[in-house]
Each structure stands twice: as structure tokens, then as C-alpha cells.
Queue: 2 jobs
Job 1
Amino acid sequence: MLPYKSLIKVDRKTSISLHIQVCNTFISLITNGTLKPSDALPGSRILAELIVINRNTVKLAYEELINQGWAESIERKGVFVLARLPIISRTRLPEAGKSNAPQKAFLWTDHFEDALPGKDLQKPTLAIDDGFPDVRLAPVNELMREYRSLFRKVYGKKYLKYGGSRGSEHLRVAICNYLSNTRGLVVSADNILITKGSQMGIYLAAQLLLQPGDPIAVGISNYGSADAAFRYTGANLLRIPVDSRGMNVDHLEKLLKRKKIKAVYIIPHHHFPTTVTMSVERRMKLLNLAKEHRFAIIEDDYDFDFHYDNNPYLPLASIDHNHNVIYIGSISKTFAPALRIGFMVGPAEFIQSASALRDLIDKQGDTLLEEAFAQLFDDGEMERHFRKSLKIYKQRRDLFCQILRADLAKAITFRVPEGGLAVWAEFDKKIDLHRMSEDASKKGLYIDNGDFYKNEAFVTNAMRLGFASLTDNEMIKALGILKKIIC
Amino acid sequence: MLPYKSLIKVDRKTSISLHIQVCNTFISLITNGTLKPSDALPGSRILAELIVINRNTVKLAYEELINQGWAESIERKGVFVLARLPIISRTRLPEAGKSNAPQKAFLWTDHFEDALPGKDLQKPTLAIDDGFPDVRLAPVNELMREYRSLFRKVYGKKYLKYGGSRGSEHLRVAICNYLSNTRGLVVSADNILITKGSQMGIYLAAQLLLQPGDPIAVGISNYGSADAAFRYTGANLLRIPVDSRGMNVDHLEKLLKRKKIKAVYIIPHHHFPTTVTMSVERRMKLLNLAKEHRFAIIEDDYDFDFHYDNNPYLPLASIDHNHNVIYIGSISKTFAPALRIGFMVGPAEFIQSASALRDLIDKQGDTLLEEAFAQLFDDGEMERHFRKSLKIYKQRRDLFCQILRADLAKAITFRVPEGGLAVWAEFDKKIDLHRMSEDASKKGLYIDNGDFYKNEAFVTNAMRLGFASLTDNEMIKALGILKKIIC
């Protein structure tokens, strides 16, 4: 008989009943090969004494094993492991001296073999980030009030049921009003899909527009996560130069003479990573090219709300009379990155296709949060929050740039950005950004190493320095550490 | 001069400043072709009088137009639309008699042309659904308490920042404990990715495992949204018969003699839609086949928590010594469909690839909800909720089946399901389910038409009748309406 006394341990403190614990232990013994088909289980009286348990508990455990099809009871003989149960064959461990890496049990796409774990930015206390909002400004109490009021209503709990894949109609209408008021973009709720942040909009557009080998035009410098979403479709990324007036549309025009493209991806308001704004002339020309060559313009306008000096430029979507633009925006960037609500605006049929794809990916968004955000728009709370943040971020930009100029001019060249939440800082070429990042980390400052901004066509010793998430004191402290390291 | 008096309307009630309103109106006039490059804008004094506005406001508007690059000021002559501005060419409306359907401005994949809008189930008050939980049982007050307490903590707001694409570590650890306690599934946080409901797990697995043309085995009857996710990759779906002991693994074995497959998708605990449980023998045999032929088993166990009669069967993942299983589960199904939290368990390297793909799709989950759920697990609140729902749903299943037997036996054949939230009801073949659905709708009852359960290989006059979301009274009322229509 097996050493059941040491093999079967029961725990009287958990909520799992004892007979299930015994039953599950037997299942392990069977599946790991300790007990084989046709092996006899010990008599219930013997086992009960061995493991100090009531005999009826053992009987219940055996009944469960029989019910589930692991064992069979043979009259006057006892309980046995089911004779016809297949034995699980096990992978042998690699022999000594052979490779230690076990063979994968099955194969999958190697697209992501070199992927690094996603950054978790919740841990560092002092960080110069890529241009994130200050979550401490988020009107959390107002959000909680909306949540409570949703539940208080008689039908409040309906928001906990499945909703449509397009997102809350209430929020889609609220966003229509918001787009019309702030950007002169007049659309209806049928032109809007609520997404999880702007990344989902980019992913959906990429999936719908691009097949393997299809050409898409993007900036030489570009938002890496958009590049990755395009590359994942197997598309061919054509790099177009970006200068101080945004993407060079004349260059694109020349390219179009010899090549058909499916789409162009731009971030015209504040190009990522360099923060430049696309000129009106180029915008108009790009719209004309899109019409003539029938390609889509994916306009990523994730930080429209943050523009400090003059009035923000209207997006291309607002002057797109031929419906070539798929417009992508985000409220997460304005409210809090972890509350992921974004939107995609486009021709109603395209939005219908995007909703159907979204249904495959994750069915729907967080209806409760969508309703609460809609309510915050209706109350004017969202607008108040935007105005308040804008004012604070402008002050922070000014102080940040002032310190950079005063203390770090030897190491960093930059232009004051007209909008957005970060400065594009070009570092003296003698400064090794990887080492800077490591040195800063030792002094308690998280700062990236610039790799995210590079790609096969864009090599630079520059990076974005986010100012919005830092209070004056934090900024002084953070830039003080940086100065010590690089100046 | 253009009729500016009627073209330019300002609204003194909005928060948008007047000069921006005037500026944006000029932008519209330029982009829609009313004003052309080199056209003169009216003098500021004249325009101010015409539209009854301060002259300085007009000046500010012109300055803004010039700043943004729409217009230029020519000394001693006035302000003009920028001479070198490209004119936007417009699509002509189709001529009379020609097709009214305008040509698409750009083309996209036609995968989703026939897609129906996602079902929005928040509206109907009385519904027999597909097997949804009763959101009225969700411990919403406890959830709100966790939210409040997260914000009260000094570092509470950190949960509003970006988190990792793998999901909250706190929740991953809580789910490890939960899986170990309930399913004997011993894994570490590195084996877990938090997803948005189980659909995202299915989508991610499909994307990673399948390339166009790759074969995947699925049931003849199967969960339609999983089929759709597999089909979207271009994979080749091989249909395997499903009987009262689940998927026929002998059939799969024969198929494997002539064909290599990449994966098999099963819902062994309660097959969708028919609710049958896969036998232990078949589970063991399937694990052996997976090892021998190196394919992945996608085990969808979305409703493990609901099993009424004997102890639930342990999932294949719990006895998978060779790591062939990708295990997908959901808390949404147990808590509330709109609060979308699910999980995927698999080899650490596979989970790393899935996290990288998830990063492309939507960066991360809802960290705040993830933390709150983790806390509910830690408090034991989640378990209390599961136990309470299980008891209520068992009573509902019993009453529902009793009424079906007593009142609808003439029209419906069914087996009492051992678990899950729905009965698989086979209707008399004379009953037209589409008509039934329409007739019910007229009497205030939402019930589907059965199309979701059909596919190219599975034609049946049956559908799932969800019992869990109905109170006793609602059940009596709903089935009463159904009886009047079909008996």
C-alpha cells in the first residue's frame, strides 16, 4: 500500500469540505501516475484510521471519485482506479549534459519573443515620464458620486448587464457635443465607437485597413506603439520625413506617384515624439491627396485638450468633407491613464466594422465607467476639470522649461512645446541615455533610456520629458538630480 | 462681399470665446470652398458692424487665422486667405438616375460587412437570455467600499496611472489562491494574464496560435464568438462531434492520423451551447493526444463556479503535467457582465507573448477595478458572493426546470443541466423560433431566435434558456408568455 499517511493531507481550516480534499488528492495521485488504472484504493476503514478522519468522509470521497469517472466499485472487492482510464504520459526531463531548456509543449507565433514586459509606472515615486497627466488632479470624488448615483437609481444595475460593443449611447452623444464644441467636428452617435484609450482605436483601424504587405505611410519619427500595431498586421511601413511643420506631405506626394498606399498615420496636433504641429497648408494638401488616391488618414489626436499658447488647430477630421479621416481621441490622457476611455470617429459603415471586430476582442467596454463619464460631461464637470488641468499644466510647462534653460542648457536643447504634456529634449551626444537612466535610478529618480523613441529609421540621442505629472517641488527635485548626473 | 451677416453666427452662451467662434467660421468658409486662396477678408470695422461684435474681437480672430496659417496680412492692403493654400477638392454628388450609394472614400476589410450590431441587453425589462448572471445579486456596495478605500489611502491614486499589460499583481496573486483552492490548479502570478472577460483570452490565444490556413479542432456545436475569433485569423475550423460525454476524442484521434492541428478548443465543464460535461476518460485521452501531437488545448471554463449537483470536475489544466493547456476563465460571468475581468493561465512564456499582444490592443486593463476585485477576494467577499449566488441559482434552475416540465413539455425537450446558467431546450420542429421571438417581443418578453447557436455544421431547432437572471415571479411570467405562444 502507498504511504497514504504522508500522501493525503487534509486542512480543516479552509472552506473546502474534507471529502473533496481527499477526492482531489486521489485525482492527483491518479493523474501523476502514482496510482495506475485497475489499482485498488485502500478500504475506507483503513484509510480513515491512517489519516485520522471519519470513515463516512472517506466513503463520500470514493463516491465522488466514482461519480466523476475516476474510479469504479467492484462488488465484494472494493474500489479501483477505472481500468480503462488512459494513463497520462509525461515529458521526460532532459538528460544531464543536454540542453536544459525544455521543448515547448506547443508552438505559437514568434512575433513577441523579444517583447519586454509592459511598463508598470505605479511604483516609482519620483519619475520624469513620457508625458502623462497628473492623476492627483483627477476629479475622483465627482466620479465616485456618479457611480453612487448610478446605483441608487431604480434601474441603475442595468449598467452591469451586457451592453453593445459600440459603447454607451449616452457617452457617444456626450462626446458628439464635446467634439462639436471644442473642435467644430459635427458627427452623430453612429460615427462614434467608444474604445479603451486611443491604442485600441489604432489597433482596430490597423486591423481593418491593412493586410500583409499593404503599404502605410508613417513619420520617420513616430509613436512606437502605433508602429507596432501596424507591423503586427504584416503591413509595410513607409517612412516619411517630419520637420518643424509636421509630416512632409510633398514627400508623400512623390511617393504616391509610384506606389499605392492604404493609409497614412499622423499625429498632426503635437507629433509624437517631437511635439511639432502640422501646418495648415500640409493638412489641406494631405486631405486632397487622400481623396485623389483613396487612402485613409488615421488622425491620432490623443492630446487635443492640452494646447497652451494660441487656440488649438482644428483637427483634419473637422475639415474632411470627403470622409477620408478616421479620428482617434482619448479621455484617459485627460482624466487618468488607468480609466481607459477613448473614441474613434469615422464613416458610419467603418465604425460598424470596427464595432464588430471589437466584439471579437472583448465584447464591450466598461459600461459603468462610460455612463459615469457621460454624466460628468453632462454636469460640466469634465470641462471644469479640463480647464483646471490646462491652467496647471501651462504653469508646469513654463517652470519646467525655465529650469531646463537655466540649469541644463549645457546638456539639453529643446523648443518650448505649444501643447501636450512633454518637452522633446535633445541631449548632448556625449551623454549616454542608458547610463543616465541607471544613474538616476540609483538616486531615486525614474527616467527612461530613450529606446522607445528610436526605430530602424530614426536614431537620436533625444527623449520626451514629461512635465505635467510633476508639482513644482517634484520638478525642482527631479531636474536637480538630472543636473547632477549630466551637467 | 459675401453675406457675412448670415454666414457668421456667434453664440454668447457657450464657453468658447467669440473670437474663436469667428475664426472657426472663417476656417469652415475656407475649407468648404466659399472663400478661396487670395480672397480678401472684410475689413475689421466693417465686419464688426455687420455681425454686431467688438472690433477687437474681429482683430483677434484674424490674428488667430494668421497664426494658424489660414490667412496672411499684406501691408496696407488687408488680410487675405493664404495664396498658396491648397483648395480642398470635393466629391461630386452622384448624378440623378445613377446609384445613390456614394463610393467609399477608402477601402477596408470586408470581414465584417454582414455583422449585426452587438446586442445591447440593458433595455428589455423581462428577458430569457443566453445564461447571464443576475446583476441584482452583485455586491455593489462592497465594491464601492473598496473603491472608496483605495482612494483614501495615501498612495491610492497611483492606481490611476499606467499599470502593466499583464494586469494588477495583487489580483493575479488573489486569482492564484482562488484557482488553487477551488480547482487544485497550482500556478504562480507569472502564469496569469488578467483579461477583459473570457472573450479577450480566446482572441489572444487565437491570434498567437493560428496563422491563415492553420487547422483548429472545435465542436460541431460550439460557442459562436469563439468560432468567430478563430475564423478571423484565417484558420481552418475542423468540426468534431460532441455527444453526452463532451467532444468525441476518438474522432479527433482518427483525424490526427491524417492531419496536424495547432489547437483544440473545448468547453469541457459545461459545453456551449448544449451544457454537457466532458468525461474524465476523454479528458485524459485528450491530454495524451496533445502531448503526442504537440497541439495546444484552449480550455474555456467560463462558468466553473456554477455547478449544482456533485462537486465540479477539476479542469484539464489542473491535471496537465505537460503544459499543453491554455486555461481561460472569467469573473464577469460570476459578478456582473459589464465589469469585465477574466484571466488566462498558461506557460509563463506564452503569457508573456499574450501580454505583449495585449499591450498593442489596449495597453492594460482597468487597474482600479482589478485592485478592488483583488481586495474583494482577500476579504472573502468574492467567495461569499459566489456561495450565495450558487445557492440562489440552484433554486432557480430547479424551479425553471419544474415549470418547463409541467407547462411546456409538449413543445420543449431538455435535460436538467448539472451546472451553468442555462437549459439547452430542443423545440418541437413545428415551432418557428424566429416567429416565436417576434411574438414574444410583442407580449413584452425578449427571447432570442436561436440563430446564434447554429453554424455551417450544426442546424437545430434548439436554444439556450437562461434561468439565472430571473426571480421566481419573473420566471413564472416569462415562461407563461412562452407557453401561450408555443403550446
Job 2
Amino acid sequence: MPAGGSRITLKESNLKKATERVAFQGEKGAFSQEAVRKLLGERAEVIPCQRFEDVFLRLKEKEATAAVVPIENTLAGSVHENYDHLLAYDFEIRAETNVRINHHLIAPPGVRFRDIRQVYSHPVALNQCLRFFNENPQIERVPFYDTAGSVRMVMTEKRKDAAAIGSAVAAEIYGAHIVRRSLEDDRRNFTRFFLLRRPDYPKRERCASARNVEWKTTLVFSTRNTPGSLFRALSAFALRDVNLTKIESRPLRGRPWEYLFYVDFMGRVDEERVRNALGHLRELADFMRVLGCYPKGC
Amino acid sequence: MPAGGSRITLKESNLKKATERVAFQGEKGAFSQEAVRKLLGERAEVIPCQRFEDVFLRLKEKEATAAVVPIENTLAGSVHENYDHLLAYDFEIRAETNVRINHHLIAPPGVRFRDIRQVYSHPVALNQCLRFFNENPQIERVPFYDTAGSVRMVMTEKRKDAAAIGSAVAAEIYGAHIVRRSLEDDRRNFTRFFLLRRPDYPKRERCASARNVEWKTTLVFSTRNTPGSLFRALSAFALRDVNLTKIESRPLRGRPWEYLFYVDFMGRVDEERVRNALGHLRELADFMRVLGCYPKGC
């Protein structure tokens, strides 16, 4: 929540609480919920979902007013599954944010570091903290479903000898305390999230901290993979000095030699040079769709 | 192993066994071991490693003659960590292969489907089989470290009421049986693996089944992100009809507006048009390195 949040009166706050319901994948306290907070503030009501597809379904069926999904991670790459859902559902990307993935050691209040004999978390999180476990051989690693779920478990079972690895939001939500911060081996672990809305939702998201916001646009297009077809497609941007910030190809299964390209660039779809670039790209591509135009994330 | 494997005499087989030691990440029976078999046959001795970095270290320290690492998955995207290691270590990609990720239900011999009350596996595998669990609510999902490790556990503990989800190789290695095949929700789940060698290792890998092998080359380059810089870099390929099969950008952390690009193209580095393209790209890029030139994978 931006600093101004404290000035919201109770009535407005309730209104806001009633109107924002945000679907995300994972348990309450997942890293996706940190993204929800950065994007919509702390008062947004969350709808935790089991699968990414459930997140999109909740938004489609209007149970959620927004969805927040991870789209790429600095270590693990792009989440192709969510690009697939973006193509299958008719939503718009309205904002982006980058969340630093910090793995904290979290335990029930009163549990001291020297009491801890077992640490629960998702295996991916456990494997990103190997230095900590090598330095502390007295502690056993125990795989669990979910980072946030492991925090909830050590709390509900009131474990005196166990901790979990999870996010700061999970510690806060479940009333646990952070015993040690940032156990992760690699600090370059960031996940980029998109905020999605149905197209009929009013366009009003702004980056709270910036007045002179830079805008980004995300689109998908496909070409036949004849030599030079990507080069020709990119001429649509290069000839108009439109600056790409991401490009990624993905082979289309079952259609040999056809590719999808995911592209992000700096610019708004209502700028003339961007309109011209998109018109030119439409001529050159077999298929093209703008997935969203949104303020550059903080 | 190609069909000709059975003609290898005992002495040759022992020699081969003695000379090929292949490092991979995961337990014995991991999907990486399926890739090892496709690339080097069943007789290669395997060196299971905890982390990807350990795999590269085993090859560097000559404990392994080869390393096999996943580089991208059709659902989960590129494994950036392994691209980072490819840049940090001086190895060559000598072959590639694509492994279909099939999640089988695996139990000790004699265990019938109706006996099964718990299914162990890595949470990522469990989450890729949600339809099966929804249709079988009597079965509890239990997270475990590793797909292959869960197969080993149900076997060593001789569980009568439990199964694991893992690969066919894991079932075979641990003497378990496959109770049900292919539980995965999405059949489009493939992982591409690279076979890596130290540069001094003789170049002799060939795709066993193909005589007229097509060749691919993988390289990494960086440019300053001025508008059109990628377009200019790609002109090196387009002007010589060199056909790209993959392109992916990755922002360089700590160096704003600089990007790494991963590119694959069809062609051998000793073809004249490819030599010319690489020479031209060297002029245009800040940095460029060929990671390998290898037969297109089967």
C-alpha cells in the first residue's frame, strides 16, 4: 500500500476491500501475494488457487477483479504456461512488478535458532539455500508442498523444534517470526509478475511512486520460420526506433518450423510511432496480438 | 542404446563402461538419466549430483567425461542457471536431445492400484498430475525431494500402500513396476538436454539413427540496448539466409540496458556462410561466444 493508504477512511477502506478480489496461484503468503501487495496494496482480498489455470478461470468467471501471475524468473526463465493462458483468455496486462525472492527462516514465536532440528519448505526453495544447510548439518531438510504452506504448518502444529523457509508475507500472515533472513545462495533471484484484468475493467492503475511513468507494451506474434522472417518482423520496430526490452522465441508444437515470439518494448500503443510499428508488424506476421500496455514496473 | 549395441563384445562394452562417466543433476533414475541414455546409451556410468554447479565441477575436474544438463522445458522455459554455467565454464555442447516428460505411477512389485493410499513425488510432478488426483480422491499426495528418490523410497521401505510418480528409468533401476502410465495433465511436456564435453575431448558424437545429419549451432552474444541493435545483429544471419531456431534475451543484472541473447541456428561453424555470419556478428556485438556446434537432436 502506498504511504497514502493510512489516510483512507474506514468506509473507503471497506469499499476497496469489497471491490478488489485478486486471484493468484499458491497458498496465502506465497511470493505471488508479495506481488499482489506491491501492485494493489495490503487491503486487496486474495483468492489463493491451486493451479495457474484456476487463476485465469476465477478472473473469467468474475469471482476475481484481478489476477496476478508470475511471467519470468531470473534463474528459472519464462513461465510459458502463463503465456499460453494469456493467449487462451481475453485479458489485458495492466501492470507489472518485480519481486525479490528472499528465503527467510521462519518459526513460531519463542523458537530460537539453536532449537531448530527440521526445516520444511518446497524442494525448490530448500535447494536454493544449500549453503545454509551445509553450514548447519544438525538441521534436517524436509520437503513440503509449498513455501507458505510450510510456514502455516509449523505454526498450526506449534512446533518447538522446527522452522519453515518462506516469504516475509507468510511470516506476517501466520504470526510467525523470522529467525534468519535471506538464506538463499543466489541473490539474483527475482520474479516478474503481471496484473491482469478483464478488458472491460476501467484503466486506472498507475505506478504509485512515479509521475513521469515510462510505458511498456507486451505482444505475441508468429511467423513461418523462413530465413530472415524474424529479421523482417523486427524491422517494424527498428525502423521506428522502438526499443525492445525482451524477445523470446517458442516453437509451436505440432506445427514444425512455426514459432511464437514474445516481445516487450518501451512505448504506448497510442503513440504514433508505435501504432505504425504495430501496423507494419501485422503485415509481416501470420498472427499478432497485443497482450497489454502498462507502466514500467517498480 | 542404438540397436547395434548388442553386437558390442564384452571387452568393448567394458572399455566403454570404463571410459564414459556422465555427471547429471538429480538422483539415479531422474529424467536427466533418460537423456543420458538417449545420448550415450545404457552402458554409460552415471555420476548423480546435487546441484547443477556440481555437474559442471565434476566435468571440469575430469571426474566425469561428459555432463548432461537440461536447457529448456516446453512448459517451464529456459534454464538460465545452466546458460550461466555454460558461460562460466569452458565446455562445448556436443549433442542435444529432447526427452518427453512422462509421469508414471510406480510401486513395488505386487502392489495393485486399489492398494495405493499415498503417492510420493516432487511437488512439481504432483502438480502436473492434478486430473489423476481429482479422479482418485482416496489417494493422498505426499511431497518428496525428488521424483526418482520417491521411487527408491517406496522400494527400500517395501511400502504396500504407497506409490511414487517418476520416470520409466527410475522404475527399471529400482526394480519397481509401473502401475499406470502417463498421469501428466499436459502431454506437451518435453525437456531439451545438452551433452557437454571439455574442449580437448575428441569430436565423435553422431546421431545414431540419421546419416544425413542436420547441424545446429548455439551461441551467446550481448549488445547495448540502443534501438535497433538487435536488428543490426540479426542482419548478420538474415543477409546469409542462416535460419534461427531459437532466440531469447536476458537482461544483464547490474548493467542496465545491456542484454545477453541466446541464439540457436541451423548450420555448421565450418560452412562459409556461417563463418561470414559469425565474423559479421563479432563486429556488431559487444561480446560473442559459440557454445557448441552439434547434430540436430532426435
